[in-house]
Amino acid sequence: MITYIALGIGSGIGLWALAVYLFSPRPALGAALAHATAPPAPAPILATDDTGWAVRLGRPAVAPLRALGLPGPRLAKDLAVIGRATSTHLAEKATLAVAGLLLPVLLSVVLAVAGLGLGPGYEFPIIAGLVLAAVGFVLPDLQARSEAATLRTGFRHALSAYLDLVWITLAGGAGVDSALGETSRIGRGWAFEQIRRALDTARLTRTTPWATLRQLGEELDVTELAELAASVSLAGTEGAKVRTSLAAKAAALRTRQITEAEGDAQAATERMSLPVMALFLGFLAFIAYPALTQVLNGL
């Protein structure tokens, strides 16, 4: 019965995905008009890639997954942070899901050809394939969230140093544009590269640097960078207050980073106690098992 249910569910999902791929749903009239009359959005600052064997194999499944509303807004921001296109991500999800679904079946076929069949457990490859397909479908999302969180943490560390350098440059009498540009060329790494890209975009498009920095903060989902852009935009009339504000923001960022580091250390310490507790419980079970066996046998 489980085998028939699994096959029926898989066939239904496959037919539905094929129908969505062949006959994609039409957008609502209001959404189409809003898209046609909306002003063009600025070009994204973060660069994305679109390569890999998984992308080529899973490209036909991108349209059905987009019709499902994947990826979500939060995950789309994470993908932009790590520089991965949404089509690449969806294609990888589809490829891993299909690979996880077919791997147990292929393994059972190889064992059957070799004379090492699974016997009465013929439904095991189907159940294992469904589990591996679900894991393969979710695994790219978890990996993207983890990588994006790591990059955001590193960006905040670099931003605190950048704020200190901008504050020192402004205190030395430099202008806002020169302070932002010269300071960004000092640092190295992914975070300073994104800041330099945003400032170069502002210079080439003849827009204010704080506008592109605010856009970069929104794309990275780093509110501290958007706050920096709001503070720098006031530098034309309130230079001294802006320098004080930048110094305060840098100090607040360092305090937050120290607090997060202490929280991570405490969490790691608590996780280290789990193996000791498991060992202690196993030792108690080892001691109590003979006595418990004697009591149960005496009943």
Rg for CA atoms: 28 Å
Outline = flat
Which sequence of SSEs, written as H and E, runs from N to C?
A: HHHHHHHHHHHH
Separation of termini?
41 Å
Major sheet details: none
| Helical content class | over 70%
Mean pLDDT: 79
Number of domains: 2
Strand share of the residues?
Answer: under 5%
Please mark out the parts with pLDDT under 50 across 5 or more consecutive residues, or reply none. Answer: none
Helical segment count: 12
In total, how many beta strands?
Answer: 0
The secondary structure category is: mainly alpha
What would a concise description of this structure say?
With 299 residues, the protein is an all-alpha fold. 79% of the residues lie in helices and 0% in strands. The chain is built from twelve helices and no strands.
